[in-house]
Structure formats: C-alpha cells, structure tokens
Design brief:
There is one protein chain. With 782 residues, this protein is α+β, with helices and mostly antiparallel strands. Among the domains are: 3-118, no CATH class; 196-337, Galactose-binding domain-like (Jelly Rolls, Sandwich), CATH 2.60.120.260; 498-722, no CATH class; 724-780. Helices cover 41% and strands 14% of the residues. Strands 2, 3, 4, 6, 9, 11 and 12 form a seven-stranded antiparallel beta sheet that branches. The longest helix has 22 residues, at 97-118. The chain is flat.
C-alpha cells in the first residue's frame, strides 16, 4: 500500500473512535489520533506495512479502538519498541524526542484502559501440586496423588496460570480416581494394623556378586564398591516388604570402607505392587569411616522396600584382585511399622468425628458435610449447597447402598466440585476487590501452595484480613511455617527453570564429572540461595551478583572452592574475584540453558533477558536459519552468530540476545568453568574409541546495545548491577504473576512499578518485596 493512502486510512480509523477513557473533548482525542498517524508516516511505514521486510509488525493492522486482545498486544509491542528506541532502527534517523514523548504519553492511558477492559477474569483451577497439598491438609493424609493427574501446562512461565489450566474429560476422570483414593485413605474400616519390628539382611541378595569385586561383606555390612543403577542388583530390603500402607521407620548402620573421606549415598523406596515398580527418594546422606546409625521415616504403600545407592563411586569396571577400592557398607536394616500415633487416625476423626459407619443416619451425614464442605470450599457454604451433597447420600441409601458407600460418593463429588478444584472469585459489590475468604486462599496458595488453615480463614471471616497490619502479620506467619518450602521450590523451580534439569543428559564422554549428586546439589543451591535471601530479607540485587554462595562439598569441588565438607548447604564466602556469585553462574541455571552436549549463547541470552531483565524476546522471523554448534571445533558459535547478525531481520533481536549469552560462554553444559571448548576426537571409529581434547578458546566478551563493552562474566554482572531497577521490576512481575495466577499486561505496569518502588524504599529486600505485593491493590483485586 502506498504511504499516503495508508496515512489516510489510519486517520479515518482514529477519527471514528469512541474514546471514553480520554474524556469527551475532541482536542484530547485528536492528540493521540493525529500524533500516531503522523509518527507512523514519518518513521515507520517504510518497514512496517504489508510486503515489507518487517511485515511481522504490520501497521496496516493497527486499530486504535484497542477493543481486542490482539490489538492490545500489537499496541503494546509498538509502545515498547518506540519507548526503548528499538523503532526506528539505530541506523535510521531518530524521531523527534518531543514527538516521541507526546505520542507515548497519549498512548499510555488508552492502552492501560484497553488492557484492563480486555482482561478476562479466569477462575483458576488448582494445579497438580496444589491439589495434592490441599487434599493432604484437608484430610490429614500423606498420599501421592500428583502422579495420577495429567501434567499441567505453563503460561507466563508458571503452571498455576489460569489460562493454562483447562479441564478435559481425561482430567476429570483422573480427579475422580484421585478423590476416591483420598477418601478411602482418610476413612478406616479395618481393624488397627499390628506394629511389628523385623530385621532384614541384604547379604543373600548380593552374595552372587561378591566374587566380582563389586560387592563385599565387611564387619557385618554389605559393601558396594560401585555406583549402582537400576540395571544392577542393589542393596535393599526386598526380602521383607511393608505389609500394609502406613508410616515406617528404617534403622541401619553404614560406614565408608577403604577411605578416610566422606562418602555419600541415597535411600529410595520402591513399590512392587503394580505392573511396574515406582519409587521415591527418601533422602541423601553422608558417612565416614566410623560406623554411623541412620533412621529414615516415610509413609509407604503396601509391598514397598527401601534400597540403598552409593554415589560418586566408580562405575562398573573390572576390579583387580587384592586391590582396595572405596565403598559404602550397609548393615542389617530394622524395619518398624506401621507406626500409629492414634486409632482411628486423625484423618478418620477429622472427617467423621464419632460417626459409626455401620449405623450412620442422614443426620450424621449432614453433620459430616456441614463440617467438611466449608473447609473443602475454603469459604462459608449455604444450606442449599449442603442439601445438594446430602441428596447424594439419601439417593444412595435409598438404592440399598450402605451408609459408608453413599457418604463416600458425596465426599468424592465434593472433591470433584468446581468449588474445590477452582479458586473461585465471585463478583464483589465493592467492585474489583475480592472477598476476604478469597484473599485468604490467594495468600495461602501463594506461600503454601495449599488451602488456608483455620487461623487464616477465621481472620478472613472476621473481615479484618485486608487490614495492612493484619495481612502482613499473616504473611509472616505463613513464611515462617515449614509449608513455605512449597513457595521456594515451586517458584524457584519455574523462575530459574530448575524443573527442567532432567530434560537433558550431559554427554558422558565430554562431561564425566556429572553425576546424580551434582544434579541434586544444583537444585538445592538454587533453592537455598533464594531461601537465604528471603529469610534474611537481603537485597534482591544479590541475585545478580553476590560475594557468597550456598554450597555443599560436591558443589564446592565443582566450583574449585576449598574447605567445604559434607552434604549440607551452607553460606560460603567466595574468594575475591571469583566468577561465581548470583544466580547466573549457578550450575543448575547453566545446565538448564544448555542442551547437554553444547552451549548456545542464544538460549542463555534469551533466558537472561526474560528472567533477569524482563525483556521477552519474539520468535525468530519465518524461514530464519538456525544456529547449530560445530562440535568438531572448526567454527565457534560466536563466528556463526557474527554472520547471523548481518541478516537485517535477525540483527534487531540478536544485538540484545547475544551479549548476555556470550558472557556465559565461559561455562560448559554442566556449569563448569572453561577457557577452551571441549571436543571429542575419534581415534578408532571402528571400535568407537576416542578422547577429549581442548578446542577453540572461549571468548566471553561482548558489547551491550548501549555500546558498553565487557570482557567476561565478572564485567557483565557489573553492568547488570547498574540495571538493578530493571531486575527489581522483572522479579516483581514474576512474583505477581505467580501470586495471582495470571499473566501481567500493560494495565498492570503502573502497579508493578509502584510495588517495586515501595520495596526499594524499604531496602530492596526480597521479603520486603513480597510484603509490598501482599499489601498492594493488585493482590486484593480480581
């Protein structure tokens, strides 16, 4: 379309607008309409109309009514590119600063109002983790339900986003199965199980492997000299499995053999009742040469056994006769259980009180439901709601079903009701503000990923929760509870992408140091670092760079830091000038931003922009060639990206993406520091022999879009600290997205900025930031 007709088209579109947000005066309307059309004509249309190289941002599609989500998104992109100076491109003549300022000032209020008007209030479903936690706290049961439910999708970076939590027929069937298991686990109909203590010796299980040298029997302990995996015989209690579901205590002695160093092992519980064995980790442990007694407790299903795995030992290599190898020895295991604190258990009493299932009446059922439904729905319930579920009991008993079966049907139905599965937020006469009981749920699911407890709900029912001092006191109480670990693991796991740590497996030929213990430590480091900043209300700028790290022995060895022993994380001061400090150089982050074999500055650069600086990156234009690392080492990825940036359609984004990615090139796919790339050189193709050799040197320097240069990650982190306000805004946006269960839009920017500024005025600490979020109107509104 020629430029002049397009200008006419835009002016016609603008002039026909109704504009309630800017008032009825024609002068105010003309300011936006005229300025936008003139600005586009002068600065944008050469590139941004149909058929041009930048047609992916086609200004012919612009509609200043902003009455659709698509238009709000389009105008947001236009606003941001102009505001950041990305449009027009740097090589073009710059727009008049006054004209630009006036245009943005005119667009901002209209776009804010349009985004808020388009915001759809989505009733958010509980995700898998929240569902399992809620059932646990509601019924006082410890049962794994998450694995029964389909995996949740993400939106805006988190899996508690209402847009991603649709319900399918498959999902409802899974909820039905999970609810039945939960109710059956809560109610007991059998006699009290007998608590027994048995002793299991694993010698017979590994006897046949002792001659190979992989196992031994020393001082009454079965010793493993290898790191076990699922393909090999393990030291376990399979000879005596758990008779019924319940809590069991396992007591055993262990010691390191043929070494004075600490050795490490893990204990897992495997269940062999189904078609395929399932397992869960019960913990990681350290042991020295002096025998030590351990106790492990867990709730296990029937026919479960515990298994022991040594960590960090050599793999399966042929042992030399007479040689001494380090190993971990495990003595006989004493199993006690099921351990019963009270009978009937708390779950049964909490649900039924003193109701006798064999003699239950409809009145008993009504009493049960009147206690249960308000807690399940996390709000007061009406008589009509009670009657609806009571009717299910009546119909069941009327059809000759037992009282137990009929009540079970009603309770299962309640756990499959939208009132339980969704965080329902109804229209409040006061406008956008949510009710106090809904605010209580919003707070508890933010910090606990579970339902509010009686104290929090009680305060909500009194109408005092929205008082700033009251809600802040409740926030502190929730943060001090062990249940707050759910916030740390769920938020950090998604913000830092640590949940994706299993998605790639490092090439064993190139990265032989990688093992299960290191991966476990990577996750603990990310969570421990966040926990330290949260508990001590340290400035959030510590996420960008810090003079300390949360380390255990395995991580300290990986980072080349001496003097750290054992599995427990502790705060360790870093040597002056060390490359570590902050989250960017944590091994877990570096692993999840690599593919296991090679690193990509593009992947890591996008991660930094989106999770540290809050700059989402658009997808590449269609038919854009990808960048594939040359694993032969002939051409570095930097050289390929230099060519890539010469393509005009790529340069706009890559000038932002590449610098942070280059800064992180000094770290390999397992987060180890490197000065040269590694490459696998084949020495005998027929037999698959080869060796690891150093390749091209790593160049971690770069130039920021502002023209500032940096030499390495140390310099780059200094530049990040200069943008600490951008990071504060980004982290505020991430936390608010997680807390509200929805993505932030243009209409939220004013609130995000206000929250970030309030936190900065109180010292910029993480805890202060969370307090500011909870006090904000955004947190209390739909």
């Amino acid at each position: 379309m020629p430029r002049r007709p397009l200008l006419t088209f835009l002016l016609v579109v603008f002039f026909r607008l109704p504009d309630p947000e800017l008032g009825s005066g024609a002068v105010e309307k003309d300011q936006l309409q005229t300025r936008a059309a003139a600005f586009f004509e002068q600065n944008c249309l050469d590139c941004h109309e149909a058929g041009t190289t930048k047609g992916e941002l086609n200004l012919e599609k612009v509609d200043a009514t902003m009455t659709s989500e698509e238009q709000v998104d389009l105008w947001t992109r236009i606003h941001d590119r102009i505001a950041k100076g990305e449009m027009p491109p740097a090589k073009r003549e710059r727009p008049d600063p006054v004209q630009t300022k006036e245009l943005l000032a005119a667009v901002n209020p209209r776009l804010t109002a349009a985004d808020r008007a388009q915001r759809e209030v989505i009733q958010r479903r509980l995700n898998r983790t929240e569902y399992e936690n809620t059932v646990r706290d509601l019924l006082a049961i410890d049962i794994d339900l998450k694995h029964l439910l389909p995996e949740d999708q993400q939106a805006g970076g988190f899996d508690n986003n209402g847009r991603a939590l649709a319900v399918s027929t498959e999902q409802m069937q899974a909820y039905l199965e999970a609810a039945r298991l939960a109710v059956d686990a809560a109610i007991v109909t059998s006699a009290r199980p007998k608590t027994e203590t048995v002793t299991v010796d694993s010698l017979a299980e590994v006897q046949r492997y002792i001659d190979s040298g992989d196992f031994g029997y020393v001082d009454g302990r079965v010793v493993t000299y290898v790191t076990n995996d699922s393909t090999y015989s393990k030291i376990s209690t399979r000879a005596k499995r758990t008779p019924v579901r319940g809590r069991y205590r396992f007591r055993f002695q262990a010691a390191a053999h043929n070494t004075n160093d600490l050795l490490f092992f893990t204990v897992s519980a495997s269940n062999f009742a189904g078609v395929a064995a399932t397992s869960k980790n019960l913990g990681y442990f350290e042991v020295g040469s002096e025998p030590k007694t351990f106790e492990v407790e867990a709730v296990l299903d029937a026919k479960s056994a515990v298994q022991f795995f040594a960590l960090g030992l050599p793999g399966y290599v042929k042992k030399v006769a007479g040689a001494k190898y380090p190993g971990v020895g495990f003595g006989a295991v004493t199993m006690t259980g099921p351990i019963i604190d009270q009978w009937p258990p708390e779950s049964h009493v909490r649900l039924l009180g003193d109701v006798d299932l064999s003699k239950g009446t409809i009145t008993d059922a009504e009493n049960v439901l009147r206690r249960f439904l308000p807690r399940a729905f996390r709000r007061p319930v009406t008589d009509a709601e009670v009657e609806r579920f009571l009717d299910l009991v009546g119909r069941g008993t009327g059809n000759q079903r037992s009282f137990h079966e009929s009540l079970r049907t009603s309770l299962v139905a309640a756990l499959c009701s939208p009132n339980f599965l969704y965080l329902v937020e109804k229209a409040n006469p006061s406008g956008r503000l949510i009710f106090d009981t809904e605010l209580a749920s919003r707070l508890s699911y933010f910090i606990w990923s579970s339902m509010p407890d009686e104290e929090l709900l009680g305060i909500a029912k009194s109408g005092r929760l929205r008082e700033s001092e009251v809600i802040e006191a409740q926030l502190e109480r929730l943060l001090q509870s062990p249940r707050a670990e759910a916030f740390i693991s769920n938020f950090v796991g998604q913000w830092l992408k640590l949940r994706q740590i299993d998605d790639t497996t490092p090439d064993k030929k190139l990265y032989r140091k990688f093992d299960e213990l290191l991966q476990m430590s990577m996750i603990r480091e990310g969570e421990g670092f966040f926990r330290e900043i949260l508990q001590r209300d340290l400035p959030v700028s510590e996420f960008l760079d810090s003079k300390w790290a949360m380390l255990n022995q395995r991580l300290a060895e990986h980072y080349g830091i001496e003097g750290v022993s054992g599995l427990n994380l502790r705060k360790v001061s870093l040597p002056p000038g060390h490359v570590r400090g902050g989250v960017l150089t944590q091994a877990g982050v570096l692993k999840v931003t690599a593919n296991g074999t090679t690193t990509s500055p593009v992947l890591r650069g996008v991660w930094v922009l989106e999770n540290i600086l809050g700059q989402p990156t658009p997808p590449p234009p269609p038919n854009t060639g990808g960048i594939e690392p040359d694993i032969r080492g002939a051409v570095t990825i930097r050289q390929q990206l230099d060519q890539h940036r010469n393509v005009e359609s790529c340069s706009v984004c890559h000038r932002l993406i590449d610098p942070p990615g280059f800064a992180l090139e000094s770290f390999d796919p397992i987060g180890d520091y490197r000065e040269k790339y590694l490459r696998w050189v084949v020495t005998n193709a027929e037999k698959g022999y080869g060796n690891v050799q150093p390749g091209a040197p790593v160049d971690a320097s770069g130039t920021l879009p502002t023209g500032e240069a940096f030499r390495d990650i140390r310099d780059f982190k200094k530049h990040l600290l200069e943008r600490r306000h951008d990071f504060m805004y980004c982290l505020t946006e991430k936390l608010l997205t997680y807390a509200l269960g929805r993505e932030m839009g243009f209409g939220d920017r004013e609130s995000i900025t206000a929250i970030a500024k309030e936190a900065e005025s109180r010292g910029g600490g993480l805890r202060s930031l969370i307090r500011a979020i909870v006090r904000s109107e955004s947190f209390r509104s739909r």
